Amino acid sequence: MTHRGAEPPDGTGFLAVRCDVTDSRQVDRAFEEAEAAHGPVTVLIANAGVTHDRLLPLMREEDFTSVVDTNLTGAFRVARRAARGMLRVGHGRIVLVSSTAALHGAAGQSNYAAAKAGLVGLARSLTREFGPRDITCNVVAPGLTDTDMARALTPEQQSELLRRTPAGRAAHPDEVAEAVAFLAGAGYVRGAVIPVDGGAGLGH
């Protein structure tokens, strides 16, 4: 699980490790700590994401590259590191959390949409690469979801997204988690993109 804040969440049954996915050394250390406690990581959910929204003429190069480095290259880093243990034990599940912005585009989010679209190509390439091995890689593409990121949108942006959503409301985070959990246990679903968008894309 991921957690925002200075301290890890309270409760038993969790091992909390800190990791900046833009730093390969931190990724290695996080996996080493998890592996020391629990053995090889066989289920990976790549969910780290940031936004720096600007219209293209106003977007700085660092606005673009920093989003890609976290949202796409960060997923590559953790998937590459997780694959070592998965290949060693002969099975694994990788779920990449993308966005419907990857499928439709979004004004002011060319960096975010491009990075999230890259996750689809990454998942399908890994599906080809792992072939007959029992290692799957799939994508969940949430639409408007009740998170801090969505609450940062303007009321006009939220209203427009809701207008295009047959469900008439934002997703609850646990509804996205249900799709992730399904893919984490589904051995014969590979290279799929599952929209969790209340019907906004009508299956894309």
TrEMBL record:
The keyword Endoplasmic reticulum is annotated on this UniProt entry: no
InterPro entries: NAD(P)-bd_dom_sf, SDR_fam
Alphabetized SUPFAM superfamilies for the sequence: NAD(P)-binding Rossmann-fold domains (SSF51735)
Biological processes annotated in GO: fatty acid elongation
Cross-referenced Gene3D superfamilies: NAD(P)-binding Rossmann-like Domain
Keyword Oxidoreductase: yes
Single annotated GO MF: oxidoreductase activity, acting on the CH-OH group of donors, NAD or NADP as acceptor
Pfam families: adh_short_C2
Top-level taxon in the UniProt lineage: Bacteria
Keywords: Oxidoreductase
PANTHER family membership: 3-OXOACYL-[ACYL-CARRIER-PROTEIN] REDUCTASE, CHLOROPLASTIC (PTHR42760:SF40), SHORT-CHAIN DEHYDROGENASES/REDUCTASES FAMILY MEMBER (PTHR42760)
Membership in a protein family: Belongs to the short-chain dehydrogenases/reductases (SDR) family.
Protein name: 3-oxacyl-(ACP) reductase
Lineage of the species this protein comes from: Bacteria, Bacillati, Actinomycetota, Actinomycetes, Kitasatosporales
